[in-house]
Write a structure and sequence with these properties.
Blueprint (H helix, E strand, L loop, with lengths): L2 H16 L4 H11 L7 H6 L8 E5 L3 H13 L4 E5 L12 H4 L22 E3 L3 E5 L4 E4 L4 E3 L2 E4 L4 E3 L11 E2 L6 H7 L4 E2 L4 H19 L4 E7 L9 H16 L5 E7 L8 H13 L3 E3 L2 E7 L4 E15 L4 E14 L2 E3 L4 E2 L2 H4 L25 E3 L12 H19 L12 E8 L2 E7 L18 H17 L7
Parallel strand pairs: 1-2, 1-7, 2-3, 7-19, 10-17, 11-12, 11-17, 12-13
Antiparallel strand pairs: 4-5, 5-6, 8-9, 8-18, 14-15, 15-16, 20-21
Helix pairs in contact: 1-2, 1-12, 4-11, 7-8
Protein name: Sulfide:quinone reductase
GO molecular function: FAD binding; sulfide:quinone oxidoreductase activity
InterPro entries: FAD/NAD-bd_sf, FAD/NAD-binding_dom, Sulphide_quinone_reductase, TAT_signal
Amino acid sequence: MSEKLKKSFELFEDALQKEGLSRRDAIKMLAMSGLLATTSSSANTQLNASGIKVKIVIVGGGLAGVSTAARLKAASDALDITIIEPNANSVSYQAGNTFIGTGLYEKKDVMYRTQDFIPRDVEFIQDKVMEFFPDNNQVITKNKQVISYDFLVVSAGVKLDFSQIKGLEALGDMYTLEENEKLIQHLEGSGASTVYNINTAVQTWKNMQASIEQAKQGKQINAVFTHPHTAIKCGGAPKKIMYLMNSRLNEAGVRKNADLTFYANSGKMFVVKEYEDAIIKQYKARNMKWNLKHNLQEIDLQNKVAIFDKFWDEKGAYDEDLEEYEMVTKHEKVEVPYDFLHFTPPMIAAPEIGNSPIGSSNGWVPVNQKTLQHVKYSNIFALGDIAAVALGKTGGSVRKQYKVVAENLLAAIANKELTAEYDGYTVCPIITDIGKVMLAEFDWSMKPTPSFPLDPTQERYIWWIMKAYLLKPMTQYGMLRGKI
């Protein structure tokens, strides 16, 4: 572990003690929360595959895929593991995109070379799986390679579907790390961007700086932030970018010259009531506005107008048999001029996966919510953004899921019962200011499940330390090594 990481842990530990925890309790809580690497031999013993020679193919070489490969390889050198991934830079620290969009990181700070993290003796094929034949235990790649497997792990992430927004149809769909000059050119000069693509995250910071400069010159700017009608990875990111722009405007001394408004398709600001109440309180304190049940349908890039479908339910005809009113959804077109627009594109499963025998009607790979085993094919597992799990499209969820997949896959190899279970845990470090974070942890209970004995609805500097200094090296030296 690097000296920098050690110092970051010391800083975090010191901050915990200032919150009233003893050093012993602080270390205990770090270990329980998974922030300390589990490098003991007991972890490997638990994942012992008994030297069985088995061919495992992992589709997707991002955080989920590489972490799973590392965990499996640590369990048994006898496992024959292949990762298939088209992007040579697929292992990035995507959680840092929000920091790029607000000038706290540069692109180089989050980009890694995938080969540097591929575990020893794991084969890496830079190609894309285009067809799945689960009945024959085979996949076919774009380069026409036919690859057989005994077990398949699908961790291919999600695609950004720009085509669902009028004005962006020409962009089609793409991955977060996809280098696409057309995307930059299409949005150039429009004031619109998104941190969900690595290059437009850079563009977001340029747009933000331009808007702040306008505010400095006395113009009243209108900043708009959106959340779409589909499931998305890192559901808190659309709010994080808004909080951070608020912080940057305050830093520049021109907050009074800006209106910040959040438009969400959902009827709630957050799925967990305790965190929703805290967010609303924070918004009110910062004079930030929000509108629910607004779905972004179109962006007029030339005139800088965001166009939403505002919808609500009204009582319709009365049903005498059911003794209740029919509820009718009403719609209204709402046009919102903007100077700065951060839009979150709808997200989908890659069509070659969603439309395949291993996919589903909604695109995601259907798995048992607890074991992460495919509901139809017992030798297939899925995790991360592509898995049809009610919660879990975050790196924090993957940190729990990849261990479950590794342990259950090894149990399946040995014809044993699958005992490892994913409990729906997800975590969203909501950056509320430069120097403050609310650590939103929860599971399928839809109640706060904090790892530390501190009020989870409070913004704290210690969570900023974790977010800004610890999570990135933990990803590099922990998860990608299969250790935490």
